[in-house]
Amino acid sequence: MTSPAEELRTIKRLWAGNRCKTIELAADSSIRVYCDKVGGNCDRWVFIMEEGNEDVVAIASLTHWEDFENLPCLHLGYAVVPDSQGKGYGEKMARLAISSIETFLNNKGITNWYVSALVGVENIKSHVIARKVFGEHINRSVDPVTKIENLVFRQEYKSPT
What we know:
Layout: H1 4-16, E1 23-25, E2 28-38, E3 42-51, E4 55-68, E5 71-80, H2 89-107, E6 112-120, H3 124-134, E7 139-142, E8 149-158
Parallel strand pairs: 5-6
Antiparallel strand pairs: 1-2, 2-3, 3-4, 4-5, 6-8, 7-8
């Protein structure tokens, strides 16, 4: 799985080369959405915050890697360029991505789903954002490839019927 910081670098390169085909988010005209497939078959939505219609300052991504308890589980990642950190962009982008994808899923008839985030135990800035979005972490895990220990955050979403 690509780290959010690497996703941000990739999106910035695509953006600078005008190779990032996006649509404007109806709820917020400063946010663009880029959709693709990663790993050959996993849907990914990247929400992009631009500043002055010129540069990417923050992203949040949701990727459907796997299901949890027989329900779709989207992995949330977020990253903010260093010069824009501390302005609330990470939390804003995470919340915006979740609320936007909820509308998309509801329109597809999916009314019950999960969002999870894996945050490196040493990434204190991301802990703050994850706790604001999810509450406390539910457990810890070690990435089998990178050997990095993560805090696992997960929340179930149910749309009103």
